[in-house]
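Quick start: read one record
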Amino acid sequence: MIKMPEWQRSLDAHFGPPRLGQYRAQPEDFWVDEQLDFIPEAHGEHLWLRVEKRNQTTLDVVKTLSRLCGVTPRDIGYSGMKDRIAVTRQWLSVHLPGRDAPAELEESLNALGIKVVEQVRHPRKLKRGVHRTNRFVLRLSGEAIESEAFTSRWAALCQFGVPNYFGPQRFGPEGRNLQRAEALLNRGWRKRDDRQGMMLSTARSFLFNELLSARVVDGTWSQPLAGDTVMLDGTQSVFSVETSDATLEARAAELDIHPTGVLWGIGERSQADTAAYETRLLQQYPGLCNGLEHSGVKQARRALRMRLLEPQLAWEPDAARLSFVLPRGSFATAVLGELMLAN
């Protein structure tokens, strides 16, 4: 059974490990706002709702909307899963062809702690992963923010970027999702056992984090190597690097491009210097790697580094308030992991 490791932080080699801190003493300390890059068209069969929730998961809201609107959960769309212990804003869609929403929908949702911030019609269902970014405002406290190195660590993240780890919430409490994924892949993945593909995602996330951690240890996570596939910042556009050169290194230093790591599946393996990292994964975790390939999932790429957009640090009595924007799929907990040890 695979045990959850402690993945390498990028800043420890220079600053040493961070101190203990707290970032979610109450839901209001962790605020998230999902950002679309388009405007709904104001007509169509789907009612889009931008809601603010507190102490509820996205799937909790889906169940509530399903019951109040008299539709199945399949009729409800959402782009991203948001944290439970937090105050989060996100869009959801409800398929209501030829009919209006229940007259007291907003009032009923509000009574259950779900505030409707905005609502509009649109011709299509909201699909997973269509939002562009998430804006975070986080309140931190504890020994970590009292350290002289705290502001230096933050400045380094703003300048050099952050290792793009999948957050611990992907793996469940004590890594139980990973253990479930391992068991499922060892016996042979079947769609009926993993309807949403969460176990496949968990296994691929773990392997990606392992590869990223190895490159952080080697100091190669932020600069392209021969054989790398690199991604243009802010996009999913990629290109291959046969050999690195001064131009590519300068672009990486400016956070214009990022090396990528494999999201394991069927596809060609990396070549040259980067091949060793994938070979090591296959040797260490053959059950996960072979199980993912047998499931039929196709290989993809994920940037090893993320840029903090619009970063700000403000001080309050006994607390620090961080504000930043991340691309979809990136985790604020990866940022926090470089700044503090969870208390």
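The radius of gyration is 21 Å.
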